[in-house]
C-alpha cells in the first residue's frame, strides 16, 4: 500500500452536525459504495460522586495522536475491504449532548462497513493519546477514566 499522508482528525470544540451531513452528502456520487456505518460519540451527563458532568475538556499531544490515528486508519484499510473512512475527534470543551467523535466507514457491503467502524472505535479508545477532563456543574473537574 502506498504511504498516505495523515489526515487531520481534530476539530476544535464539538463535532458540528453539518460536518457529518456534508460527509454523507459527499458520498452520494460514489456508486461503488453499498453501505455506510457511522458511530457518533456524545457527551453524557454522568453522575460522579454526586456531581453531574456538564462538559468534557479534551486535550492531546496532537502530532502523536494524529500519527496513531493514521496507523489505525492504515491497518483498517489493510484488514477490511472499505472504500473510505473518516474520523473527527474533538479537542477543547464539549458540552453534554454535543458530539465528540465521528467515525464514518464505507464499503460495498454492510457487514464490512459495520465491522470496520467498530474496529476504528475500539482502536481509538485503546490506543490514541487523548485525555478528557470531566467538568461538573459547579465548575470542579477531574480526569475522566475510560471504560
Description:
Helix 2 packs antiparallel against helix 3. The model has no long low-confidence stretch (mean pLDDT 93). This protein has helices spanning 17-25, 62-79, 110-127; strands at 10-12, 35-42, 47-48, 51-60, 82-95, 99-107, 130-136, 141-143. The protein contains three helices and eight strands. It starts with 9 loop residues before the first strand and ends with a strand. By secondary structure, it is of the alpha+beta class. Strands 1, 2, 3, 4, 5, 6, 7 and 8 form an eight-stranded mixed sheet that branches.
Give a quick summary of the entry:
The protein is an alpha+beta fold. It is 31% helix and 38% strand. Helix 2 runs antiparallel to helix 3 (110-127).
Helix and strand sequence: EHEEEHEEHEE
Q: Give the biggest sheet.
A: 8 strands, mixed
Gyration radius from CA atoms, angstroms: 16 Å
Decide which structural class fits the backbone: alpha+beta
Mean pLDDT: 93
Whole-number tally of structural domains:
1
- Report the sheet-strand fraction: 35-45%
* Coarse shape: elongated
CATH structural architecture: Alpha-Beta Complex
Q: Any low-confidence stretches, pLDDT <50, length ≥5?
A: none
CATH superfamily: Molybdopterin biosynthesis MoaE subunit
Termini Cα gap: 34 Å
Amino acid at each position: 500500500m502506498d504511504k498516505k499522508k495523515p489526515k487531520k482528525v481534530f476539530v476544535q470544540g464539538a463535532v458540528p452536525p453539518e460536518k457529518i451531513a456534508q460527509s454523507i452528502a459527499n458520498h452520494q456520487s460514489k456508486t461503488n459504495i453499498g453501505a455506510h456505518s457511522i458511530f457518533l460519540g456524545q457527551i453524557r451527563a454522568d453522575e460522579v460522586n454526586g456531581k453531574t458532568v456538564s462538559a468534557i475538556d479534551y486535550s492531546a499531544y496532537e502530532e502523536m495522536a494524529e500519527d496513531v490515528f493514521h496507523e489505525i486508519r492504515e491497518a483498517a484499510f489493510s484488514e477490511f475491504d472499505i472504500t473510505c473512512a473518516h474520523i473527527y475527534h474533538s479537542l477543547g470543551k464539549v458540552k453534554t449532548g454535543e458530539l465528540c467523535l465521528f467515525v464514518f466507514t464505507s464499503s460495498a457491503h454492510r457487514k464490512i462497513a459495520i465491522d470496520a467502524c467498530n474496529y476504528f472505535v475500539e482502536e481509538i479508545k485503546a490506543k490514541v493519546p487523548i485525555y478528557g477532563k470531566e467538568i461538573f456543574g459547579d465548575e470542579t473537574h477531574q480526569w475522566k477514566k475510560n471504560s
